[in-house]
Amino acid sequence: MRLRTTLPAAVAVLALATGCGAADMTKQASPFANAGGAKSVTLSVQSWVGAQSNVAVAQYILEHKLGYRVDTVQVDEVPAWDALSQGRVDALLEDWGHPDQEKRYVTDKKTIAPGGDLGVTGHIGWFVPTYLAEQHPDITDWRNLNKYASLFRTAESGGKGQLMDGSPSYVTNDKALVKNLKLDYQVVFAGSEAAQITQMKQFAKEKKPFLTYWYSPQWLFEKVPMTEVKLPPYKEGCDAEPAKVACAYPHTPLQKYLNADFAKTGGKAAAFLKRFRWTTEDQNEVSLMIADRKMDPQEAAKKWVDSHPAVWKKWLS
């Protein structure tokens, strides 16, 4: 869930790890990763539904159109870079921007190779339900949030307004933003994206106010319309010092990365993954099937592949 230093989020329905805490790659690494010419591929899967949608479709095409065996490894954002560098996984299909890891592994060590744009632009922000924004139009300006803090008080927010985040292991700027913008709010972690979604859906069902850290692309916007709160504009470098951040999150073109050896020797699989590029609408279509309609990821992938041949056939040539 993911900014220049991070992100968005976990979905329990995905049967993935629900947080971005340190994954034990010694137990999760696939024996097929970097398998020296074997027709197999190991893909890293992060814990948010958009990332699983990418992997589900890529896995389906690799297996059913290109004849590869595909393993997937449940791994969090920063550990994924370590695993990719070490050849424990072959590809990471959705990165929200980790400049430190990019410099270390892509620029300096050259153990990871860029895989190109995913085609989706990610953005993190603060959101209120649209029904609340319609009642109080000025609530969408951060300078007016203190006026409405009492609306967002909960048992967990200690008398302040609640700013709901997902997993405490995600890297966000929210605590710094609350402090530096002098907001009468407390960041409260739901524990995972799944828990956060459950809370938002319940609040929306009861038409209650909520203020939440959230991100796009995300299928939930179709079920719970939300309006972004305008934070001070993002400018290059305004988030360079985490403790001093007082600006909005950037819009980040999401990137793919491959293990450098796999990028050179991975044959059709590596070429396919470099060409894999789709739209926010494509990703949300698959995500909605997985997270909201409770479809098995491979069933959702098959349904999307069957109905979009003009898109994915370009990835094969």
Number of helices: 12
Task: Please give the share of residues in helix.
Answer: 25-40%
The tally of strands reads 9
Mean pLDDT: 89
What coarse outline follows from CA principal-axis ratios?
globular
Poorly predicted segments: 1-29
Q: What does this 3D model show about the protein?
A:
The chain has 317 residues and is an alpha/beta fold. Helix content is 34%, strand content 20%. It has twelve helices and nine strands. The protein has helices spanning 25-28, 49-64, 77-85, 99-108, 130-135, 174-180, 193-205, 260-265, 267-275, 280-292, 297-307, 309-312, and strands at 40-45, 69-74, 91-95, 112-129, 161-165, 185-189, 211-216, 226-229, 251-259. Strands 1, 2, 3, 4, 5, 6, 7, 8 and 9 form a nine-stranded mixed beta sheet that branches. Helix 2 crosses helix 10 and helix 2 (49-64) packs across helix 11. The longest helix has 16 residues, at 49-64. The two termini are 31 Å apart.
Keywords:
alpha/beta, nine-stranded mixed sheet, single chain, 9 strands, 317 residues
Task: Write a compact overview of the structure shown.
The protein has 317 residues and is of the alpha/beta class. 34% of the residues lie in helices and 20% in strands.
SSE topology sketch:
Layout (H helix, E strand, L loop, with lengths): L24 H4 L11 E6 L3 H16 L4 E6 L2 H9 L5 E5 L3 H10 L3 E18 H6 L25 E5 L8 H7 L4 E5 L3 H13 L5 E6 L9 E4 L21 E9 H6 L1 H9 L4 H13 L4 H11 L1 H4 L5
Parallel strand pairs: 1-2, 1-3, 5-6, 5-7
Antiparallel strand pairs: 3-9, 4-7, 4-8, 4-9
Helix pairs in contact: 2-10, 2-11, 10-11
